[in-house]
Every structure is written in C-alpha cells, then in structure tokens.
Amino acid sequence: MAIVLARVDQRLVHGITVNDWNALLKPKRFMVIDDEISKDDMAKGAMRMSKPSGTGMSIISTETAIQNFKNGKYDDHKVFVLVKEPETLLELIQAGISIPEVNVGFVFPDDGRKAITGRVSLNEKEADDLKIIESKNINVSFQYRPTDEKISLEKALDKKF
C-alpha cells in the first residue's frame, strides 16, 4: 500500500500529527523524511518517543526514502510521510515514488514567506513546487486538522503568487 498521505509540516511530529491524523489515517508507519534531522540523534530520539503505540517510525534522508520505497521495503505498510518543505516531496515524485495526496499543514512565516492560510506561509519556490506536484495529478490541499475545511491549492494561492 505504501504512502497514504504526505504532509508538509515544519514541526513534523507533534500532537496534531500523532493524534488527529493518526486517528484518521491509521498508518503502520510514520516517516519523517529530512536530510538534516536524519543525522540528529537527539531530535530523532525525541520524535520516536512521541509516536503512537503500535506504529513504527522512520526518520531518514530523502535518498534513503527513495531507495527503501523502490526496494519495496514499505509495500505492506500504510505510511504517513512528513516533510518540512514541498521540495522533498517533489524529489520523491521525480524519483518515481507514488504519492496519492499532499496535505500542507504548517509552515512558519519566516524567511520572507507570504501568509497563505492562518498556519501556512510560503515563498515563491515552495508555491511553485506545490503547483508542479499538482500538475502531476496529485491533489494538494491545505488543512491543519482532519476536521478543518480542506482548502485547495488554487484557492489558497489565489492572487498571492
């Protein structure tokens, strides 16, 4: 089955992802894909402590994720992918990894980003990356919690980029 949802959320593993999204998706594995955090043992340890009981957690680099997916390592898993920026998802897609849907949940309003929703700010490259992802027939929406209204990419970016 592999990826059930990919989420862009700069906080990665936190209460909303391990409670609300876990309850909806019921993944077998949480997968944080981040080149920097995959090398940070302290950050990885903290994230692993917060994972829901009965689920696995991988905290790996983009290249490792691509190789593991291509080798079929997660074929029998429901995987919830968490990344900090859309570029990581675009790299996976360009490597042939199937992503059924992208959810944008939380991106900090720093580094010259423009506010898109109450919890998401993007720069031009991030907006362009999401447009490219959607052009590949992958639905991109903005939704903090599963109970919140889903906002389409088109509506979220309207007159902003």
Basic shape: globular
String of helices and strands = EHEHEHEHEEEHEEH
Largest sheet: 7 strands, mixed
Bin the helical content: 25-40%
Low-confidence segments, ≥5 residues, pLDDT <50? none
List keywords for this structure.
alpha/beta; single chain; two-stranded antiparallel ribbon; Fructose Permease; globular; seven-stranded mixed beta sheet; 161 residues
Offer a quick outline of the entry.
The chain is of the alpha/beta class.
Task: Explain the overall architecture.
The structure is a single chain. The chain has 161 residues and is of the alpha/beta class. The chain has one domain (2-157): Fructose Permease (3-Layer(aba) Sandwich). Helices cover 34% and strands 25% of the residues. The strands form two sheets. A seven-stranded mixed β-sheet has the order 3-2-4-1-5-8-9, sandwiched between helices. A two-stranded antiparallel sheet has the order 6-7. Helix 2 links the parallel strand 2 and strand 3 (56-60). The radius of gyration is 15 Å and the shape is globular. The model has no long low-confidence stretch (mean pLDDT 96).
Describe the secondary-structure layout.
Blueprint: E1 2-9, H1 15-25, E2 29-33, H2 41-49, E3 56-60, H3 62-70, E4 78-83, H4 86-94, E5 101-106, E6 114-115, E7 121-122, H5 124-135, E8 139-142, E9 151-152, H6 153-157
Parallel strand pairs: 1-4, 1-5, 2-3, 2-4, 5-8
Antiparallel strand pairs: 6-7, 8-9
Helix pairs in contact: 4-5
